[in-house]
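User: Design a sequence. Structure:
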């Protein structure tokens, strides 16, 4: 009893001298050290990952050049590589990702002077931006715009979200048209609240998790796959008009490969229905991409006697969902009106999409909670 009383007295003295301000400074200091360490770790992983993917792209391109340089050969090679790498290293090497690695090497030819024997470190020094940023830059066809955004991201220290926002708002085009370019650049350098990326977000970047061979219980890739699977079942349950054709249907436009999330055939309308799912907000670029898909499908996938295909763009943000049909490719208003009458209501699809996303998020949180409890019990 005496020992317990002495311990209690000592604790009381410590608590008495431990002011809220002093303790707050202690916690804040430790939190700052941890956040800085997390950011440093994420940046180190990103640098190694970017250099590694560039090196993978170099090896693929040089292998192609040493053999048959035909486009058909390249497509088969990438698909085979993807299957073998996924089997050995996990889902970070999908066909799309391997294509991006190859395109990354081709888009930065100045770095091709780096020796293969020099290792990853010298290559990493040439890529100060995270891999997610280079993925966004690769999506730009205009080389001048790509160089502009890369330069500004480095100069102004843009986060990936800020880079994405500037690209979507056509900052390059607006700056080129502006008479006061210095003012535009200064304004563009100022971040917004939504641009901030927390250390946790940096560490849990799906690209980082895939590269390290880790698995996030609730990654965007898993969410997208689950939503597509549910959407497929949802449309088939609406009636006998929808017939499933394929998922992740691949198409090639120019030198780029694309994938349509879902393809159905509608028996009453006698046409294909192309469905594209986005986890972000709806943009004009999404509409333009869908119309490109529809043009390709009309030329290559539509049989004689069938009506032109129709597109359905789905955007499943956390706070709202949106569904929008792309009917601009139809030859006349009468056919467009018929499509509107027969196809499911956009609001119905959007509401189901939103409800499903919320259910999947809750399920993901529950699974993480269960796994945490299991780990605690095992200890």
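Assistant: Done.
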């Amino acid at each position: 009893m005496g020992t317990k009383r002495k311990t209690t007295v000592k604790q009381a003295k410590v608590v008495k001298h431990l002011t809220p301000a002093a303790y707050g400074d202690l916690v804040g200091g430790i939190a700052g050290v941890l956040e800085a360490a997390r950011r440093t770790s994420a940046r180190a992983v990103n640098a190694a990952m970017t250099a590694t993917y560039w090196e993978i792209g170099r090896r693929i391109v040089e292998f192609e050049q040493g053999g048959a340089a035909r486009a058909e050969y390249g497509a088969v090679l990438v698909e085979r590589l993807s299957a073998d790498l996924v089997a050995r290293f996990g889902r970070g090497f999908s066909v799309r990702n391997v294509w991006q690695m190859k395109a990354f090497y081709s888009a930065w030819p100045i770095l091709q002077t780096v020796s293969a024997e020099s290792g990853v470190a010298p290559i990493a020094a040439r890529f100060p931006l995270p891999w997610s940023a280079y993925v966004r830059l690769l999506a730009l066809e205009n080389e001048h715009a790509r160089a502009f955004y890369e330069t500004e991201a480095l100069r102004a220290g843009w986060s990936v979200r800020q880079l994405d926002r500037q690209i979507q708002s056509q900052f390059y085009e607006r700056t080129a048209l502006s008479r006061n370019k210095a003012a535009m650049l200064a304004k563009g350098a100022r971040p917004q609240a939504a641009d901030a990326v927390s250390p946790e977000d940096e560490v849990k970047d799906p690209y980082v998790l895939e590269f390290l061979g880790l698995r996030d219980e609730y990654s965007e890739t898993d969410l997208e796959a689950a939503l597509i699977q549910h959407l497929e079942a949802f449309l088939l349950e609406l009636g006998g008009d929808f017939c499933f054709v394929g998922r992740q249907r691949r198409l090639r436009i120019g030198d780029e490969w694309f994938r349509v999330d879902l393809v159905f055939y509608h028996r009453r309308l006698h046409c294909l229905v192309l469905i594209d799912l986005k986890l972000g907000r709806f943009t004009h670029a999404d509409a333009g991409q869908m119309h490109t898909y529809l043009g390709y499908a009309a030329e290559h996938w539509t049989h004689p006697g069938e009506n032109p295909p129709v597109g359905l763009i789905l955007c499943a943000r956390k706070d709202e969902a949106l569904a929008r049909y792309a009917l601009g490719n139809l030859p006349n208003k009468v056919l467009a009106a018929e499509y509107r009458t027969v196809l499911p209501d956009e609001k119905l699809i959007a509401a189901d999409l939103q409800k499903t996303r919320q259910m999947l998020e809750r399920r993901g949180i529950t699974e993480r909670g269960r796994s945490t409890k299991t780990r605690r019990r095992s200890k």
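The two ends are 31 Å apart (CA to CA). The CA atoms of residues 82 and 98 lie 7 Å apart.
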